Amino acid sequence: MYRSASSFRIGLFLFLLHGVAQLAAQQIPHLDRSEASTQLIVEGKPFLILGGELGNSSAGTAAQADEILPRLARLHINTVLMPVAWEQVEPAESKFDFTILDHWIEQARIEHLHLVLLWFGSWKNAVSSYAPEWVKTNPKRFARAITPDGNPVEILSPLAIENLNADSRAFQALMRHVKEFDNQQQTVLMVQVENEVGMLGSGSDHSAEAERLLNATVPDSLLQHLLAHKDRLSPELSRNWNEKGRVWREAFGVAAPEVFMAWNYARYIGAVAAAGKKEYPLPMFVNAQLPAPFERAGEYPSGGPHPYFLEIYRAAAPALDFYSPDIYWPNFEYWIERYNLSGNAVFVPEARLEPSPFNAFYAYGEARAFGFSPFAVDSIADPANPAADKSALAQSYWALEQLQDILPQAQREGKTRGLVLHVSSPRPTQTVSLGGYLFTATLTRSWPERKILQDDGAMIVVQTGKNEFVIGGSALTISVSKDVDAGYGIAGIVSVEEGSRSGGRWKTSQRLNGDQSNQGRNVSLPAREFKLLRVKLYTNSRD
Ligand code: DGJ
Which of 23, 65, 56 is nearest to 41 (CA)? Predict the structure, then answer.
């Protein structure tokens, strides 16, 4: 019995709060899209994936989890991307064994880590090497792609229905199991379906079925989709597309074989994803091996989810939630932005380890990614190397994890910017505009020699008040001026504090003045460290 109206209200409030918490826990991880950015919602809240992908042979035994996961947790990684091999979970047809995966999930829970599963099913880097023995040794039943001179290759044909059915059954069993094992705790957040698919060699499957279909008409559903989404076709697709064409070569010209392969891979993978989603509809995505300059289709996997042909994938595979680039090339910003279009959720499942601590600041700050993940992170966290805990990746994630509570909202409101600079950057100075100020950054130099102290530097800027910003990063000297778009006048620095954030509060460890702020002229992010700074600015209008 409530003794007063106010205790009744408190009781009601607590009851409702409990209800909301329960509802949040019942929701499975899902995407929340807005025009500005897409967020991954976990237990009712936006979750920023500070990820790391394992090497290809790092998750093949249960014991590897015990050794690897504690080390990764110490690097401030919050989510591990791990392969799940078809050959491992279905060693004999219809006989499933998830014991290794279960152990990884249990160990991840102990380390407070989440997991993203990478389904190495029909294809891993184009080739079908993770398919089980009973698939590999029965090419009559599980048809291979065929070269122009008639030879089968170790690539399962994406046009063979038996291949699709076997992969779908296995993936469906996996998702059923993940649901049973993990629905409550939600350690597993998302699933990548296959890995860097596409046809190598001639760039096209030359099986009889493929040849027959390539010479036939383009499915009407694809043509209708392209007509309805003309405004978002990539330049590479629209310059090859002839709206009046009905057969593949007429409709897509020289790009026809690649578009045809993209359509067939996408239909296959979309069907595998849909089979899994019937059991447990976690967010599902595919990743692309990106072309090197001047590479032709077939040198890179032809028909993969390249930015050129995402619209083909969207038409063929509605069960896929988004498309991701694996960025190993130096022009990181170019490639991530090619996936930051038409409402695609930005998530980088693989990136070259070495500049990753810097590129991460661009990904979260500028491309508004909800996740980023360098490849082979277990290789830096070497047990014999205690310095790994202080590695650049660990330090950069240390800085970024402190922004977790404010970053998703800031991304939505356009209150975040980011940049990355390298000695080799085409422009040694870069400027971003935020909140009426211009932040102009160059790589930090020594004094008095003026030598560049570190080859890479990066920052994220988050606006936290009208004239207040939190800046995280390393090795940049930043000057601040007034953005003329916000009116004429001068801008200056009120204060720069180095510190940390926890529970939504800022804690200052030191105020930076004198030599540490170039006598009040700059905001400085030191080399060989990643720092978090709270910066207050002022602006006086000219009149
Ligand atoms: C991209 C692949 O997706 C990864 O699995 C791995 O093979 C890396 N390339 C290169 O090591």
Answer: 23
- Two tokens, residue 85: 């091999």
pLDDT at 543 over 60: no
Q: What digits encode the pLDDT tens for the residues 259-303?
A: 999 999 999 999 999 999 999 999 999 999 999 999 999 999 999
Q: Which residues of 163-192 are buried (b: 16+ CB within 10 A; e: fewer)?
A: bbebbbbbbbbbbbbbbebbeeeebbbbbb
Q: Is the peptide bond before 408 cis (omega within 30 degrees of 0)?
A: no
Residues 439/482, Cβ–Cβ less than 8 Å: no
CA dihedral 32, 35, 38, 41 (to 10 degrees): -20
Angle value at C-alpha 137, between 133 and 139, nearest 5 degrees: 130
| Residue 42, CA distances (Å) to 27, 154, 190, 417, 471 in order | 8, 39, 11, 24, 26
End-to-end CA distance of the chain: 65
Average pLDDT of 28-42? 97
- Rounded to the nearest whole angstrom, what is the distance from the C-alpha of residue 55 to the centroid of ligand 1? 8
326 lines ligand 1 (CB under 6 A): yes
Write phi, then psi, for 531 (nearest 5 degrees): -125, 165
Distance from the alpha carbon of residue 543 to the mean position of ligand 1, in angstroms: 58
Tokens 């070569």, located at residue: 249
pTM: 0.94
d(CA 349, CA 277): 20
User: Is 125 a pocket residue for ligand 1 (Cβ < 6 Å)?
Assistant: yes
Residue with tokens 């360098």: 374
Q: How does the average pLDDT of the chain come out, rounded?
A: 94
pLDDT of residue 26: 66
Quote the Cα angle for 100-101-107, to 5°: 90
Where are the strands (E) in 329-386, listed by range?
A: 347-348, 350-351, 371-372
- Ligand 1 contact, 53 CB (< 6 A): no
Q: Strand 144-146 relative to strand 152-156: parallel, antiparallel, unpaired?
A: antiparallel
The model's pLDDT over 357-388, given as tens digits with 9 standing for 90+, comes to: 999 999 999 999 999 999 999 998 666 666 67
Q: Give CA–CA dist 444/525, Å, rounded.
A: 8
What does DSSP assign to residue 381?
S
Q: Is the CB of 350 under 6 A from ligand 1?
A: yes
pLDDT tier for residue 5 given thresholds of 50, 70 and 90: low
Number of other residues whose CB lies within 10 A of the CB of residue 504: 7
50, 49, 105: which is closest to 82 by C-alpha?
105
Nearest-angstrom CA–CA distance, 304 and 290: 9
Secondary structure (3-state) at 353: coil
